Amino acid sequence: MAISVATPIFFDMDLDAIIKALAHPVRRDILQWLKEPEKHFGGQEHPLEAGVCAGMFECCGLSQSTVSAHLATLQRAGLVTTRRIGQWVFYKRNEAAIAALLARLQDL
Fold it and tell me: Cα separation of 96 and 87, whole Å?
């Protein structure tokens, strides 16, 4: 069996943690919203290229504590990345990890 060195993220991927993170519908919604941030978070003061500020998710009907818990789970699973700008934390989808996950699932 050949091992591909082109996708080293496979070796670091905790598939169980990712599946658990994706098991909750709100976390799947968050990933979907982050896929098209201009559609869901167009009113954000900072440029969306930096990511989506955690506070912006409250407009989707989620409390700050709920948003924080879900984003932390997605971050631990490697599905989102963070960037701190001043006092704010911005979130983006980790497209490389998502692509690697999809490729790994196809190999099952």
Answer: 27
Evaluate if pTM is beyond 0.90. no
What is the amino acid identity at position 92? K
- Does residue 26 contact residue 66 with C-beta atoms inside 8 Å? yes
What is the mean predicted confidence (pLDDT) over 25-33? 94
Q: Where are the alpha helices (DSSP H) in 1-108?
A: 9-12, 15-22, 25-35, 37-40, 64-76, 95-106
Sketch the domain layout of the chain as residue ranges: 9-106
Long-range residue pairs from 100-103, CB within 8 A, at least 24 positions apart, any chain: 100/7, 100/9, 100/10, 100/13, 101/13, 101/15, 101/18, 103/7, 103/10
CATH placement of domain 9-106: 1.10.10.10
Q: Please list the residues that pair with 80 across neighbouring strands.
A: 93
Q: Which of 41-50, 55-64, 76-85 has the highest mean pLDDT?
A: 76-85
